[in-house]
Amino acid sequence: MNHYTEEQQAFQQTIRDFFEREINPHIDEWEKARIFPAHRVFKRCGELGMLGVSYDERYGGAGLDYSWTAAYVEAMSESCLCNGIPMAIMVQTDMCTPALHDFGSEELKQRWLRPSITGEAVGAIGVSEPAAGSDVFAIQTAARRDGDFYVINGRKIFITNGTQADYVTTLVKTAPDQGYHGFSLIVVPTDTPGFQVANKLEKVGNHSSDTAELVFEDVRVPVGNRIGEEGMGFIYQMQQFQKERMVASLGSTAAAQSMLRKTVQYVKERKVFGKPLALKQHVQFTLAELQTEIEMLRQLNYHCVRKIVAGEDSTRETSMSKLAAGRLARKVADWCMQFHGGYGYMDEYYVSRYWRDSRLLSIGGGADEVMLQIIAKLEGYADV
Ligand SMILES: Cc1cc2nc3c(=O)[nH]c(=O)nc-3n(C[C@H](O)[C@H](O)[C@H](O)COP(=O)(O)OP(=O)(O)OC[C@H]3O[C@@H](n4cnc5c(N)ncnc54)[C@H](O)[C@@H]3O)c2cc1C
Q1: Residues with CB under 6 A from ligand 1
Q2: According to the model, what pLDDT value does residue 2 have?
Q3: Counting atoms of ligand 1 from 1, which one is nearest the CA of 203?
Q4: SS3 128
Q5: Of 12, 109, 125, 123, which Cα lies nearest the Cα of 55?
Q6: What is the pTM of this model?
Q7: Can you spell out the DSSP letters for 148-189?
Q8: pLDDT digit string (tens) for 155-200?
Q9: How far is it, in rounded angstroms, from Cα 63 to Cα 61?
Q10: What is the pLDDT of residue 3?
Q11: Cα angle for residues 33, 35, 39 (degrees, 5° grid)
């Protein structure tokens, strides 16, 4: 039984066709160049309706429920021959825009959300800093009020789309003495004087996605660029992380499934000791076990999606999904590499790229240990 409606399946087919025809043929080139043309690709994604599936029609979105977001993410992640581009697209749809959509002023949404949905603008999310990743509370980038402006100073690191973005949804401290209520989320256009891409970072994987260190030196932006209320940025960002973690898990599960299918194909073709590798019981059982884990995770993901569609809080289950997805991706990558043997270790084989790319999930968007911390807290383990 397919989890998706016929309409959703048709949408997914359009996305698969797009990746197979227009994206996959260029991936080797973009991976080598360590960047993909985000503006060109996002424009096409916008035309296909991928960038605002669950966003309000007033800003160019399709106004559909979250199951459509899941449908788009799964179709994209299973068909794209790298993780870097889906990650960059998900930054646009589910990491730098959710708070803007939910809490931004009408003017701010017309200025930045609308072009993010059409694909005319490329966005980034600026939370992590050189001395603060898992501990978001420890960020130091500060915005001082000066009349109708904020003056921002600080640094952000590991920012996806960072060298190409037109704007960065930036988490800053606006009142350091106000604890969790001392943060704000501010949209910073990257052509603002004082904003600088300090460094384009070289990575282990996700090569086609650009990652940058950003510097803010007396960056003046209008107060109107603040998303929602002053002092609510930390809370908005925690909510925004839920969207990030959900698409990360959905995408990773779909990519793991795709990798496993490719490996099944490979072991059927590859002969070892005169017979197809697939005839070895060890290989069959390992693949069967991985398939079982993928299926279990997929069902947990769908459970989360149903909760989100019903308007229920899914923090507990989404954290579990994100944790399990990161761990499973590492396991699938390792076994698939193993069954590909020496060829798997070669750059020209897709499995080596998957092996590099998939390692990120246990680190980015909240490391495994951060997920464990959330789950332990929600389960009340420390309430003694
Ligand atoms: C390719 C890439 C793209 C990224 N894109 C973005 C982006 O677009 N925007 C953005 O803001 N950030 C981005 N990040 C940053 C990412 O979110 C952080 O790397 C992540 O949150 C971890 O923070 P950190 O690297 O500072 O690690 P640290 O916080 O220094 O943690 C190091 C390790 O400590 C362990 N740890 C952490 N917390 C605990 C705990 N409570 N208990 C026990 N162990 C713990 C974990 O194993 C963790 O991996 C990106 C990172 C990468 C690598």
Answers
A1: 91, 124-128, 133-134, 158-160, 203, 206, 211, 360, 363-367, 369-370, 373
A2: 80
A3: 1
A4: coil
A5: 109
A6: 0.97
A7: TEEEEEEEEEEEETTTT-SEEEEEEES-GGGGGGSEEEEEEE
A8: 999 999 999 999 999 999 999 999 999 999 999 999 999 999 999 9
A9: 6
A10: 85
A11: 135
